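Researcher: Please predict.
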Amino acid sequence: MDQYRNFIAGEWVEGVATRPNVNPSDTTDILGHYAQADAGQAEQAIAAARAAFKTWRRSTPQQRFDVLDAVGNEILARKDEIGRQLAREEGKTLPEGIGETVRAAMIFKFFAGEALRVGGELVPSVRPGVGVEVFRQPLGVVGLIAPWNFPIAIPAWKIAPALAFGNCVVFKPAELVPASAWTLAEILSRSGLPAGVFNLVMGAGSQVGHALVQSREVDALSFTGSVATGRRIVADVAARGGKVQAEMGGKNPLVVLDDADLDVAVNAAVQSGFFSTGQRCTASSRIIVTAGIHERFVDACIDRLRKLNVGHALDAGTDIGPVVDAQQLAQNLRYVDIARREGGVVFGGEAVERRTPGFYQLPALITGTTPAMTINREEVFGPVASVIRVQDADEALAVANDTEFGLAAGICTTSLKQATRFKQEAEAGMVMVNLPTAGVDYHVPFGGRKGSSYGPREQGRYAAEFYTTVKTAYTAA
């Protein structure tokens, strides 16, 4: 069986143990055994990054452009191969896996350009004979902790800006999806980066993650993952004076008003709630529908769900792949059962068998729910969406905002007035009109409000707010 090592200080290094990477579409298919580091190896990677920063911080914009552009080009050239690997280890359908791979490539190419576009200001002082410069500088060593649901795109949008702005990286991928991370690391290892600038340390959060969070040699930490873990990380990093950024989840609403185009609304709800097996932090898990369209909308959604094919991620014709692992499947089924016991009417949602042993679940639509039900308060992170019936647009907006989260929100309406009001008043970092809430561009900010996010936005030129620090310099004439 193939074994894959960590990458520390420019060398491929054995871990203290290995972990099998299991295909959720076929649990008999093992992608390989991936190294597991301990806290000591994480500290070695941090030390390597600190040493490399002395010279990498002085790298030219052209050097950084060349590295990132080359990485983007190779990912694009290998999109079918890498996309297939991604689908095989995470459970996305093959088209979704290839699409995510292309997105990762474009992120690297975008930040290659950003390396050349870092600017500053030269302004006059209020004092005569004094000049003022304002410019950005890299932070130093950045720890990056990524989740399992986007195994290459989320690492890309953390690694690329960190390198583009002159930082050194210690990257910990999710334990469930090391293959995509390892492939990305292997490409980076041949990109021209000096030893220690980029380090891959695969392993448990209790070992590798804890070391990154606690080390005072890690100047900043970017995390995407669960709410509970994110809140602990924010508190711990802030307590030691580090810079921290956290994306932690959502309970995203999709409002459907009486005047909505029914086909547009159904497509937005199904795409948002169920594709990628619902395993997206931007998924619409609360569908808030006004009374005049409610019955037609529910009937049309159920009709659409009946036609979706749940199956092996690599099979042609599969619309929805498996859930990522047994633990996630059990959690999904538990929430469906809770919703049923609290009075919801459930369509679908059962675990099913397919031609290969895997973690398959039919998409679940739960109707007859109220805002106070558990299914409408807690993030499920699976192919499970609930419908809340409301009387009008005012109640729909109030219910949409009635959550501790604030990542994404959507509305389906043909009214410019209602769309404009929703864009202004929805308490979310990202708002979609007549579109799925899941699906965002790589060149604009990503992030939310309230319990969904902490710290500056990710992606686009706004990424500079996290990955750099601003310096003001005064010079006497």
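Model: The chain has two domains: 3-248+452-476, 252-433.
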